[in-house]
Amino acid sequence: MADQDLEMVLDINVEAGDWPSQVTDTRALITPILEKTLTFVDLADIKGVEISVLLTDDAHQQVLNAQWRGLDKTTNVLSFPSGESSGETDVALFVGDISLAFETVLKEAQTQGLSFSDHLSHLLVHGLLHLLGFDHEVDEDATEMETLEIEILKTLGLANPYADES
């Protein structure tokens, strides 16, 4: 595991009105999940990171997905890495943005028989790992990323989200 003294600056923007119906305190839920995820990744000499989380709806997520990925449909989570790599000690490194679509996250949680917060937790881990350079485009990378997700989620007391996949 990586250094746990890493400082995290977290910007949360609740853009869609339905999020408070499922998450009463977004900062209290999101912060420890992202902090725990960061302890599993070696960020070398970086002393602090800044992460932006957008809690939006399916309509806006579809626009973002079409604009940035060329896919005209909504999706549960999008990650937009900043591309910054500075290790300056006095400035938090902006690693990027994570965008989550309320209706899709809710629907998936219900379909999978999960609590909303458990499914959201998995998607936050998944999104942050993307910001940190992990991917699942090829099988070898997917296995590495999923294994890390499972390990992180286990430390958060959450079940393996890939257990039922064949």
List the keywords.
166 residues, alpha/beta
Walkthrough of the structure:
Helix content is 44%, strand content 19%. By secondary structure, it is α/β, with parallel strands linked by helices. The model has no long low-confidence stretch (mean pLDDT 90). It has a single domain, classed as Collagenase (Catalytic Domain) (3-Layer(aba) Sandwich). It has 6 helices and 4 strands. The protein has a 4-stranded mixed beta sheet, with helices on both faces.
- Helix % is 40-55%
Q: Write the CATH architecture name.
A: 3-Layer(aba) Sandwich
Mean pLDDT: 90
| CATH fold category name | Collagenase (Catalytic Domain)
Gyration radius (Cα, Å) is 15 Å
Gap between N and C termini, in Å? 29 Å
Low-confidence stretches: none
Number of strands: 4
Individual helix count = 6
Q: The biggest beta sheet, please?
A: 4 strands, mixed
H/E element sequence: EHHEHEEHHH
CATH C-level class is Alpha Beta
Choose one word for the global shape.
Answer: globular
How many domains is the backbone divided into? 1
Give the structural class: alpha/beta
% residues in beta strands: 15-25%
